[in-house]
Amino acid sequence: MKAGKLPGVVEQRSLLMYVEADRKTETQRMEPAQIAYSAKNNGHQCILATEQMGIFGNDQTKAFCVGALFDRICAKLAASGASGEVFSVSLSLPPSLEEGELKKLAQMIAQSAKERGITAYNVQAQGRYESVEKGIVQMTVVGAGIVPVSPNLKVVQPAGKSIVMAGFAALEATAIFLLERREFLLRRLSAGYLAQGLKKVSKTDVQEAVHIAFHAGALVKTAGEGGVFAALWELGEYLDCGMDLSPYNILLHQETIEVCELLDISPYMLASGGCLFAVTEDADALLLAYEKAGIPAAKIGVLKEGRDRVLHNGEEERFLEPFRAEEMYQMLERDL
Fold first, then answer.
1. pLDDT digits (tens, 9 = 90+) for 277-297
2. Which site among 267, 281, 306, 318 is 20 to 30 Å from 241 CA-CA?
């Protein structure tokens, strides 16, 4: 694809035809910004959420990435008490991408949206000049949802409150490694084990866990690129507080542990859509609610005054740092 706007005929036959089939109402043709304007004029609050992800690899990997990105947005909206009304998808296409590949990608987007009950969305795409990200489609999704009143998300006095984790860390990255580094992993792990692991880590929809925390009065922070450490840092920045954290209590699938050991990479700084952190005054009650719902959860730390965000590993201590780069992409660039 050449840099810039797609030719109209290419846009229509390879992109829009897969989007417009399910459009039935005027609301479904609105952009997120229009939804925000409409909500404001009707006395409601519009919540906007945005996420980005590189879409790459074989067809199975691309389909997983598209679905995981939609799951991230839906979880973000749910964390504010909103359900998605309209989604806007933007694709930045590398010059090497052929029209047939764009058509496949549009079909994947349509299928992922359908599986999640999303019928109101639009897609736009443009080519870009070549960069170091050869062959990678940069996909951005903006979701708009409406709540009756502006949610009160900020905890006034965070110190002393607990941090509860629900879901598993590094699900997205583990799934992508299992798909894109399969030959390397088969040197040490069986095909059956990899297939079982992929089935586990492909479950990145965390909306039920978000709803439980939200209705329990907790502040919810979902994870994404940068992993659980990045999400916890951002949570501390938002609340302007410190943390005492126990990394041993962070939930990980055994498959994630073994894959990360073989690839010599930390699971805590890998793309982690599919888990959340809830700040609550009553960790026991929230954990009980998750147990009743069959959702894995654990208390991983507490908030404290100051700015130090400390990871306690026995007698050893280290500090959280701001997000710098998603390590999953760096790993995929290495020769194994």
1. 999 999 999 999 999 999 999
2. 267
